[in-house]
Design goal:
The structure is a single chain. This protein has 423 residues and is mostly helical. It contains 20 helices and no strands. The protein starts with 5 loop residues before the first helix and ends with a helix.
Amino acid sequence: MKKFGLATQIFVGLALGIAVGAIFYGNETAMAILQPIGDIFLNLVKMIVIPIVVSALVVSIAGVGDIKKLGKLGGKTLLYFEIVTTIALLIGLLAANLFHPGTGIEMGNLEKSNISSYEETAQTEEKGSIADQFVHIIPSNIVQSLAEGDLLAIVFFSVLLGLGVAAVGEKGKPVLSFFEGLLEAMFWITNLVMKFAPFGVFALIGVNVAKFGIGSLIPLGKLVLVIYLTMFFFVFVVLGIIAKMVGVNIFVIMKILKEELILAFTTASSEAVLPKLIDKMEKFGCPKAVTSFVIPTGYTFNLDGSSIYQAIAAIFIAQMYGIHLSIGEQITLLLVLMLTSKGMAGVAGASFVVVITTLGTMGLPLEGMAFIAGIDRILDMLRTSVNVVGNALASIVMSRWEGNFDKQKAAEYTASLKKSNAA
């Protein structure tokens, strides 16, 4: 019975969901039955994310208790994020220029989707300057930020609270004990919630296949193929090289995170795996102070899969409309994406909004995104998984950079997983 672990259960849920979705393609009743099951699972996950982020950060930062040390970690982390996401954007641009996914597409054969809500969001976000984005990091009302799930503002407040708890010494110990207890309790709840994951995956993938059908991929198949191949190249080559540089194997990381990757792929939600990602990377030898800070921050600043998608999608639209972008214009596009991809990370449908904003800035036709909207979910599934691998690796890189990565603990954890799989 042990062999039928969570990863296998999720995979079975995925396969059954695809089968059910294909059988009931276009059936509104089947979709209406499945949707609430998927929504319940996503709501359960969202329910536990914020308490885990707050308690983990307070506990780890109070343990560090040194603002200079924390400042150094923050600076190094943001530098690493900027370098890796820029590489991801460059690879996306190169792939789009090499494979031309938008060239020769007959727009008359494509189905348009309504993107007005995304356009409104893009226009609202575009009005804010970069200075406004930095101001937004500091919450005016932490309760409101908690309610809205604004991760950056929550991270900022939790770091300050952790430093405050450390600064007051003995008086802060009851507060620290409370958050330690809360963290343990939340991880227990996480394990409980994850038992529902196969049902959530089954329902979510079933609804998508029933709604869009396998046929929706055919007209834009080249775009899907280019984005998927580019993301695989990025993970196995670029992230593989970075992993090798810090003394780990990218395949080992992916084996450790197999449950989380299947879950991220099927739900297209990074939040669904955040609690387990923090927990597993800590077990793999990364200090709590690093994982609790790097991973939640990476959910805003280190979205490698999203960066690749945004670069390819922008060039795809230009190619589809027969607009030639010179090298200078593509460099400008790269710089615009470097800014917009960070500024919009907290927005719903962020990657889609980023591309719309970028197209507007570059004077490219926004309506081109209406053609991609129908298959965006299929693209979102892989870009979410790539984001998860990127942030897991980032926690190892920063642990090594800080000189705190426990190789012995990593080896023992990997060995224990092999034993449990063999059992």
